[in-house]
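job 3f2a | input accepted
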Amino acid sequence: MGKRDNIKTTIRQAVDYWSKIVDECELSVDWAEADTHCWRCGCEKGLERCHIIPDSLGGEDSPSNIVLLCKRCHIDGPNVTDPEIMWDWIKAYSVPFYNTFWGILGAKEYEFVYKKSVAQEIKDILDLAGVRYDETVEKNIKDIQYEVMANAGIHFGHTYFNTATMAGIHRMTLKKLANCYRVVFPLCTDQKDEPKVPWWL
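job 3f2a | predicted structure (201 res):
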């Protein structure tokens, strides 16, 4: 396999091209910041010029074949010859607020692993404690989460928590929150009647 030529299309050319064609409401980034924020996750990270149709599959070095993604999203991106797939994938992950994307994926991972949403777990803990959700409780949860993050790490040279680690951070936060309000966690739920469905179905 020969060495690939450097991408000549600039970040500015890609932004200028796509901002006239794609509605920013469908993305996790505003066009005004699309030269600094990943188009999929909205995080402000070093952007990579990602071929929509991969170079290895005949994709051109032109603004119409380049999107801007952080390294993490670039690695996860589809490598197929149908350009629609890339846009379907980017748009499917659109979030309305910056820096929430990976936390949302971590919450989805939590629900997949524990069969209950983080929000429902918080509600159940507070209900059992007889506490109403308010600004004080919200601050308490955030403080606990920051404290818990000190007990989580990254690996393989990444600069971010993966989704499994984010799910673990949510779980550790909930345990500490329950302990604060003297609630036994995990909460007992009757799932005996529900058949176990394999994760791949």
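job 3f2a | The chain has two domains: 11-92, 101-180.
job 3f2a | closed
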